[in-house]
Design a protein that fits this description.
single chain; alpha/beta; Rossmann fold; 2 domains; five-stranded parallel sheet; 9 helices; 12% strand
Length: 201
């Protein structure tokens, strides 16, 4: 059975990968936002039950929503606990992406937008990886303005992700997001290549 080619779209914090994803959407390409599904995972009954067993009743608020501050406090500096939590959430997200691909089975390709695609080995499940990159200082400025946080806080977030250099070495295609006026054109040109490519799947 045919399936769409799976294109991983990633980039470091402040690179503009979500902006790029939105341009693909304007071109009619289905985009799966992994981070959004990661949040939805906590509403799944099976995931919720497992999270409660792992972290206790404090993991959820009275209204049934996940308490993210509690979550962060529990897994902070506890890599083993964090790993066990991710082992509950990530497989659920992957299943949703599989369903997403089935839903869009007639399309040439779909996009999986994920902030930590390389860090969690998600690139292995993709047919091609598209990396969005930008100057480090520009990325810092964007995140400071967007989130209202200090430079030090932005750099701490950056340190949690793989280096830009390692991502560039592993990516199949790179978009340098240095000029918003030319970004649409860059994405359109890549879209034309992807549409013309014979994926062999």
């Amino acid at each position: 059975m045919n399936r769409p080619a799976r294109i991983g779209l990633t980039g470091g914090i402040g690179s503009g990968k979500t902006t790029v994803a939105q341009v693909f959407e304007k071109l009619g390409v289905p985009v799966f936002y992994s981070d959004d599904y990661g949040k939805k995972a906590y509403t799944d009954p099976e995931v919720k039950r497992a999270v409660l067993e792992l972290l206790g009743d404090g993991a959820y608020r009275a209204d049934g929503s996940i308490d993210r501050e509690y979550l962060r406090a529990q897994v902070f500096r506890d890599k083993e606990l964090l790993g066990r939590l991710e082992a509950l959430v990530h497989p659920w997200v992957r299943r949703q992406f599989d369903l997403f691909c089935e839903e869009h089975g007639s399309r040439v390709y779909v996009i999986n937008e994920a902030a930590i695609l390389f860090e969690k080995g998600g690139d292995a499940a993709m047919d091609h990886v598209l990396l969005v990159t930008a100057d480090r200082e520009e990325r810092i400025r964007r995140v400071m303005n967007r989130d209202g946080i200090s430079r030090a806080d932005v750099e701490k977030r950056m340190d949690l992700q793989d280096s830009e250099e390692s991502k560039i070495l592993r990516a199949g295609t790179i978009i340098v997001n240095d000029d918003r006026e030319t970004l649409d054109e860059k994405v359109f040109n890549i879209h034309k290549i992807f549409m013309a490519k014979i994926w062999g799947i």
